[in-house]
Description:
Structural class: alpha+beta
Low-confidence stretches: none
Distance between the termini: 35 Å
Mean pLDDT: 86
Oligomer: single chain
Shape: elongated
Amino acid sequence: MKTVRSSHPAESNILLLSYVFFIACFFSYQMLGVTFHDLLHWHNAYIGIFLMGVAATVMVLIVWEEMVFPVKAIPLKGGWVFKNHRTKLKTQILLYSIIPAIICFVYFQYEVNRLHFILWALVCMVPPIVEKLVSGLKNYNDFLTLTPDFIEYKNNEKEGRFEANEIQSITPIDDENSVIKKIQLLFTNKETVVIDLHEMELEDFYDAIDAYITANYQHWLHVKADLK
Length: 228
């Protein structure tokens, strides 16, 4: 695999995660139904505080996946396959399972402040599902393959493989920020196919896809268009 974008430096990751962990721990004692003064005498609360800090840290790891998951493309016969990292998604789901386990343990082991605890539980559980897990599962099998001999893609129910001799021109379509979002293929039989990259959760690869098209498809390349 080729690293398209590296993860953040380990020192930055550790610093940020430590910050999140300690901030979460500092505020979590209020959700256990104890005062700051009670912590001096009720040492069992430290376990709950530690676990709640872990849950918040895991949530950040999943949502801010760039911290630990570098973006990679798979080489193929002079080209590249761009697709979602399946190992990353499986790891994120495994990490996510830690969060409800901690929530259940803390809820049944401590006399929690119910309102604050529910709000904290929602903060830890909802963002990973909304931001990463649902979209990752939905686009689990999506991919785009670019080679000198053919272009192939899969986007949920839409898919296709197009040989080089079938293609007359390729038009990258940018959004208002000049970021490639679609690829329009015009074939020798005058039919067209539009590959919607933004629907395939391939935003991590936009720059790499644009660079490959510009470098390798010059004889097909049509002037760029903008999304309306």
